[in-house]
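Bug #77: duplicate submission created two jobs. Keeping one. Sequence:
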Amino acid sequence: MTNPTAAPPSAGTEVAGRVADVLLLFAGGPQYLGVTAISRELGISKAVVYRILQSLVSREMPESGPEGYRLGPAAVALGVSALRRFNIRSAAAPVLRRLRDETDETGETTTLSGLVGDERVYLDQFESPREVKMTIEVGRRFPLHAGSSSRVILAFLPEGRREAVLSRPLAALTDRTITDEPDLRARLAETARDGVAVSLGERQADAASVAAPLFGPDGEAQGSISVCGPLHRFTPEAIARYRTLVREAAEEITRTWTAHR
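Kept job's structure:
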């Protein structure tokens, strides 16, 4: 109920609220949004939506493309900054360091990823001491259908968000990326059943990984961890061992993280 004695919002406050509402649509909705969809969702004119988007694009908050607008580098950087402040990084650090050191004699790189909108972003890594190893770029965005760290998040998302991802074109990052929707659905079902995902060259050629999901207090997937390295070192025996290690490590991080939030 509106308070009749409350002062009406100023024009500046109203504009700021609309800008925030536009950005929040990108945070939880589909990867791409158009002017018409935003106008309809927020109940404001297309002209106003367009002006807001153009102002935000100039600051790299969203970026425009042939399919519409999506979160831009500046927005992703803010999201990563916020995720870095979550105590998930401090909860994950000792476990990921131990996980790296437990991967037999290989000492493969271990990583931490977070869910940002409908994409995955690397938050941290503990590099392998080996001369030939896999390293990742912290803060870089990746689609949710390609690679184990992404697919293990996608498999545990609520159905609506998962279907939104699957309804869009699935880009091939390598010749092993799963882009056929029925095949991907089968792999997602397998991942949801096993609690881990395995990638053999799906996101990066000649690289392999085994990943498990991290869950927030609401029980929804919020990120993932992985062991990753050169493809030739991920033998069936190594993968079998990593599946158990990564699953147990993810469960430990989730318990510690959710207990202190």
